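Following up on my earlier thread - several people asked me to post the actual chain instead of describing it. Fair enough. Here it is, all 622 residues.
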Amino acid sequence: MLTRLLVRPPAGRRAGRPHSLRRRALRHRAVIAAAGLALLGTTLPATAAEAASTGSAGSAGSAAFTGSDKSAASRTSVQRARTTERTEPDLTSFYRQKVTWAACQGEGMPQDLQCGKVTVPLDYAKPASGTLELALARIRATGDKRGSVVLNFGGPGGSGVTELAYGGKDFMNLTDGYDVVSFDPRGVGRSAPVTCGTAAYETDSGSDADTADSADPLRDPEALLRQLRVAAAECAKHSGPVQEHIGTVDVSRDLDVIRQALGDRTLNYLGFSYGTRLGAVYAAQFPDKVGRIALDGVDTLTESLSEQGIAGAKGQQTALDDFLNWCAGDVACPFGTDPRRAREDVVQLVRSLDEDPVPTTFSGPFTGQDLVAAIGTALYSEELWPLLERALASLMEDGDTRGVESFTGGGMTTPGGTPVLPPRPTTPTAEPAATTAEPTVPATEPAAPTTPGGASRPAPDATQGTLTDAEDVPMDNLPAALVAVNCADDPDRPGAERITRDLARLRSAYQQASPVFGTYRLTQVLLCYGRPQGTDFIREQVKDVDSAKMLLVGTRGDPATPYRWTEQTAKRLGDAAVVLDNKGDGHTGYASSKCVQGKVDAFLLYGSLPPTGSSCGDEDDG
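Reply from S.P.:
Thanks for posting it. Predicted structure:
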């Protein structure tokens, strides 16, 4: 569970364990702990609105945890994010860079993958205060090149460089006209990765730790909030200044620097899940630089983390019910042939593992909340259902956790549903697990920078923030970045008194949304406690975008981004949004639907937009 990440020593730090195994075990456990938040820009279907209409979960969720306890620091953070103002410092040197590409170094890297980097200011309001280097990767165009298309695979917290290395084959059609490019956003991967350090995972054996680490982490809210406050301080201490500038508003500005460094007049972009939030923010900040932008698995721009959590719990429960209905029709199903009884058995299995965790070889005790994380990951794609069925059978019949643990090896998925961050799980579509090396990135070659008047000026000082070596990327970077970005994007900061007062009611609402995922999802709304207030730019300013047309793809059976978010975001963006209705299942549509992929590719390559409201259905993908 998420609170385990904050209050419990990782099993991988036991004496005598080889360093490589310790590192893999801690990364594995950290990702398990964060998986309930993974794709939180993309958390899950069903709907706080539906629950609110019945007077149940949604209304309790949204009412309890909105609002803020403002401080001078948080107000400064909000003001800094208002990037639409025209009074900007001189960023000429950053915008005159050119990327130097070279073969990616590292065992197992695809031969057609090239790597590079760009330099960006740490703080766009004060560019002289420091710089960051961002890792880039590309697959070169094979046809007549007309520029680049930049991909963001979701998260937040996933390395775009690594994901392109392992999943680039899904986008080869786009190389008919584009270099296909991705990047590690600031705070992620090799681009100044954030971390919470080992102390955030450790605690004494006092009552606070025992309370927070119990099967019921919400039993003592005051103790849990103390742990969260300590963890937030540790994350700030170990991450350094980048954590104050990690939100999507800053990443969007980096994206514009990347666009210019690639030599493109406008941005061509394909974003999945959280990547759709990034694409929408970019269109609001740089409407005149929008080229062809496609957003698949559309994120919410307005709902609070508590509303997203209700949607997440309810949506995952729906996906679990669908899986159990399928499983009950198979003679090998470990839950038998009665779907209703199967749902009760899953609840009991989670409860029993929380009360009596199963020992594992390297990862420490495997709890019910670890199982919830594993099931949640497996439900992102129907292709993984047979593997999940066998993994659950092994767990229930032999106490073997290896199968279910394999689903939590990354916490991030490609659009096709394949986990891509090392250590890689064993799935039919996963690449071999022989290597976890990440590419080495060559130097950027800045053009001779000039001021607007033409005078020479120094290039950005890249020595202030160089790329992190692949082997030095912190093991907890994915969950640390995920929480940091989502908190930076969220302006709500309820205080301890409000959280304590409303927690019991909200807890009941989450349990009503899902008896399996409710407790796990409820911890989402607490993770920003103790951190500075995030920006209100996304909620307040990303609307009525005056840009070129953008294609928004929503999948009706998406277990991560409810279709209503596509409708809401399209309405919010205004006339620029064109909606493609994918009447299928699974998270996003590009990799699972030939119809969706064809329409997205046609738009990105040739500018051919389907009429808004067009649809793709299962019959199109035979």
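The chain is about 40% helix and 10% strand. That should answer part of your original question.
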